[in-house]
From TrEMBL:
Residues 106-220 form the Endonuclease/exonuclease/phosphatase domain. Residues 1-21 form the signal peptide. This is Uncharacterized protein LOC124628232. One of its GO terms (molecular function) is catalytic activity. The gene is LOC124628232.
Length: 359
């Protein structure tokens, strides 16, 4: 049992450059997002099997790098989303899941290319023979004028060919996804590639206010889909008391007038479109209560952590505006302070917690 709903599928992707170093800040970052992503694709987790990493409210599917340092990917699926694991790369750093949506399903490929020579065979091996709606989220370490790199390299042209072949579209808008603090340059190497039929109903956004401790920005992709949610527990609970009703009225009127002008004759279709317009408007104007308990995600978080992150993000803005040795050192220091502060807040909390429980 469950519900069929028009929803916005939210996918968050991010090259972490180590969840060991930046994972705690990332948990807080996810907790603070207004729209909880259904799926989170992280590259370069640097995790090893003996290290735990949990985001509260999500199931983790990891593919750690077995030998050598760095690398690794992890896909986190929100607990209320039905999914199955399709494939974990053995030779390649990838995790492929399929999430259930209304009439069909969407395959979400999380991929990290550690600066290797890409080939069509590699990409085919990662996604398998399966057809159907697909979204690739990953760090491809490849350049192409399609995503507005200055030039197209070999790896870029391999992806171009693959995209053509599989009827996919790269939805990147050309914005830089990775920031080099030492050169003050940005490059677009994190890509979101999806089936053509979904590209038109998707929104792609680089959240470039902060790198969350990494050198890559988080990227949010929103796709309008019909999605299956598990029964009562999962019905979105609108916070009607917090709604912007004026905006709701205005937007729904605009959308409905648009529909009337389209001269739709089929009642079923009209019904579908009106429902969708109203839900879409609600998504934009009414906040939702989420069942994912946010407190538990980072219970040890305190104001000190928030303050040092603000300082670090300010240092990043200053570095981008005036790239000098001083601003660079400032930024690096601020980054080190963030990690130290978070670590000590966590330790302090655990110590207190243990003391309380042992008495
Ligand atoms: C692309 O492939 C080449 C091998 O042809 C590799 O040496 C290079 O590192 C790759 N490019 C990037 C940006 O990783
Ligand atoms: C946050 O926690 C740390 C470690 O317990 C502590 O030293 C610091 O004073 C706390 N900050 C605030 C604002 O409570």
């Amino acid at each position: 049992m469950g519900w069929w709903l028009f929803m916005i599928l939210v996918i968050l992707q991010w090259n972490a450059r180590s969840l060991i170093a930046n994972g705690q800040e990332f948990k807080k970052f996810v907790t603070d997002l207004l729209d909880k992503p259904q799926v989170i694709c992280v590259q370069e987790t640097w995790l090893k099997p003996q290290l735990d990493f949990v985001i509260y409210g999500y199931t983790t599917i990891r593919n750690d790098r077995e030998t050598g340092k760095g690398g690794g990917v992890a896909t986190f699926v929100r607990n209320d989303v039905k999914y199955n694991l399709v494939n974990k790369g053995k030779e390649h750093e990838s995790v492929v899941v399929r999430i259930q949506t209304g009439k069909d399903s969407i395959m979400i490929v999380n991929f990290y290319n550690p600066c290797n020579r890409l080939s069509t065979d590699t990409l085919n091996a990662v996604c398998g023979v399966t057809q159907g709606k697909t979204v690739w989220c990953g760090d491809f370490n490849a350049h192409s004028t399609i995503w507005r790199s200055k030039n197209t390299d070999i790896n870029g042209s391999v992806i171009e060919e693959f995209i053509d072949d599989k009827n996919l579209v790269c939805v990147n808008d050309g914005k830089g996804t990775q920031y080099s603090s030492s050169h003050n340059t940005e490059s677009a190497i994190d890509l979101t590639i999806m089936s053509t039929e979904m590209a038109g109903i998707s929104l792609w956004e680089v959240l470039d206010q902060s790198t969350v401790g990494s050198d890559h920005y988080p990227i949010i992709t929103r796709i309008e889909v019909e999605i299956h949610q598990d029964s009562e527990l999962k019905t979105p609970r609108w916070r009607l008391d917090k709604a912007d009703w004026q905006m709701f009225q205005m937007l729904s009127e605009i959308k409905c007038v648009e529909l009337v002008n389209k001269d739709i004759r089929d009642v079923e279709e009209m019904n579908r479109k009106v429902t969708r317009a109203i839900i879409q408007t609600a998504e934009e104007t009414i906040p939702k209560k989420t069942r994912i308990e946010q407190r538990k995600s980072v219970p040890w978080w305190n104001e000190s952590c928030t303050i040092v992150i603000k300082k670090r993000n300010k240092a990043l803005r200053q570095l981008k505006a005036h790239h000098t040795l001083v601003t660079l050192i400032n930024y690096k220091r601020a980054q080190a302070v963030v990690r130290r502060t978070i670590r000590s807040a966590k330790r302090g909390y655990l110590r207190q917690f243990c003391n309380k429980n042992l008495k």
